[in-house]
Amino acid sequence: MSSPTPRLPGSTAQDPVNPQKSRTGLNRLWHATGYSLNGLRAGWGEPAFRLEAQMAIVLIPLAFWLGQTWVQVALLAGSVVLVMIVELLNTAVEAAIDRIGPEWHDLSKRAKDMGSAAVLLASLLGGSLWLAAAYERFIA
Fold it and tell me: Which of 48, 73, 80, 99 satisfies CB 3.0 to 4.6 Å to 67 for a cystine?
C-alpha cells in the first residue's frame, strides 16, 4: 500500500504537487525556460559563477580567434561553457546540502568536496585545451 501523495496547501486531490508535471508541449517548455533563467539569475549571485561568466564573455569570442578549425573553436568555447555548467551543478549540490541543515556531517562534506572536485577537473580540462590551442597556434 502506498502512502498518499503530498499536496500543496489549498490544493485539491486532483492537483499535482508540482504544477510543472501536468504541463505539456509549449506551455511546459515556456515554464521550464523561466525556471532555467531563474537558475542563471541565482547562479549570478554566486561569486565563482559570476567570475566564470565574466571570463566567458572574453574567452568565447577569443576562441573564434585562437581556434584554427571549427573543432578547435567548439572545444575551446565548449570547455568554457562546461566549467559554467559544472559550477552551477556544484552550487545546486551545496544548496541542497545546506537546505538539509547547518550541522557538519561527513556525507555532506563528501558531497560538497566531490562537487568542488568536479569544478576543478572541468577547469583543468578547459585550461589544458586552451594551452594546447595556444601552443599549436603560436609555437608549433
Answer: 73
Full-model pTM: 0.81
User: One of 87, 97, 108, 133 is an active-site residue; which one?
Assistant: 87
Q: Largest alpha-carbon pair distance within the chain?
A: 69
pLDDT in tens, 39-61: 999 999 999 999 999 999 999 99
Contact 84, 56 (CB under 8 A): yes
What are 78-122's pLDDT values in tens digits?
999 999 999 999 999 999 999 998 888 999 999 999 999 999 999
- Please tell me whether 136 is known to bind a ligand: no
Q: Which of 54, 50, 31, 34 is nearest to 88 (CA)?
A: 50
**129 marked ligand binding residue:** no
**Euclidean distance between the first and final Cα of the chain, in Å?**
68
DSSP 39-106: HHHHHHTSHHHHHHHHHHHHHHHHHHHH-SSHHHHHHHHHHHHHHHHHHHHHHHHHHHHHHH-SS--H
